[in-house]
Write a structure and sequence with these properties.
208 residues; alpha+beta; Alpha-Beta Plaits; 4 helices
Length: 208
Amino acid sequence: MNLSEINWDPNEAGTWPLPIKAATISIICILVFGAGVYYDTLAQLTALDASKKKELELKESFETKQKKSINLPDYQDQLAQIETELADMIRQMPTKEEVASLLIDISQTGLASGLEFRLFKPGAPVRKDFYSELPINIEVIGKYEELGLFISGLASLPRIVTVHDVNIIPEGKGGKEGEMKMTATVKTYNEGADEVVTTGTKKKRGKK
């Protein structure tokens, strides 16, 4: 078969030899199939992959929610317990009217422990999420066991009182033997942004 003798005019395709016709039809079919895959099937395959991923995400989300729903009664019990504990803590926070009385209680606790106050300075309230933090800077002098009694006494007060930034050092020159100086920040808390009732520096010593 001499290819130069073939009339390649598409309008004369009917006169082409059978092998040429078969090859041409095969090429056209391949091109049509490739175009169909490129313009239609690939997009569908991409969409199918996305659907499979979405299905997995939905299954994982369903399993997570199912586990949570199974444990819902336990979560509700925990929430009720937390709310009860929170309510108890709030009840232990002094009101604005009780702050002054609490400051006196803190001071009296130190004096009853045998300590000498060199500084008792309430600071400005620090607003938190649903409560205010009321800091009190103190400096006291006493023996180590007296300092321990003071901290223990603060913990036994009916209102929430915490002690922070504690620093204890020997009293040094001018002090009695065995005496220590403790500086700390005593904090109490109340619901709201009430102002602290301030008091002056006290220099007293309790009975030993």
